[in-house]
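User: My advisor asked me to double-check a structure prediction for Biopolymer transporter ExbD before group meeting. I don't want to rely on an old file, so could you generate it fresh from this sequence?
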Amino acid sequence: MPLLKRRTKRDAEIGTASMADIAFLLLIFFLLVTTINTEKGIYMQLPPKLDSTVDPPEIKDRNLLVILVNNNGDVLVEGEFMNVAAIRDEVKKHITNFGQLPGYSENAEKAVVSFKTERALPYERYVEVLDEIKGAYNDVRNSYANSEFGAPDYATYRSRLPEDNPDTPEDEGQDMVSDRFPLKISLAEPDQG
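Assistant: Sure, here is a fresh prediction for Biopolymer transporter ExbD from the sequence you gave:
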């Protein structure tokens, strides 16, 4: 009986180089096609953490403008109900008082706006009120930059400032507008409400 030769099967080889190429191309494809969600929020520079042994600075009641917002979105400025649109004018009056009216700040450098909410306040209302507060500071800074330095607004004034240069005279190159009207907003911890 003739001996039949057995065929030996060769193991199938899969080219790892071509598989790596395909994986790499798929990775590039998904990186190009996929949209990555960017986080949205309010840009704010947080103050450094206070040393627990140091007492917070004393602020006279006159220099503090208290703005409270409850869960319903009702705004109280110094204990009186106010429309959100009127906040900007009230904050501007507080910042630019310069000691004239007794219920407002002594000067802009000492003026502080305290903003406190209840925890369940809708985010949109929080942003709306905070925008009005910051808008008041921007309006005052724009006006001052225009009247004192001839700049159409505060941003233009800032763009004209020279870069940090040790050869620049001391009073030149400083942001005199923000020195005159510093942004002092105290964001108090929300109440549980």
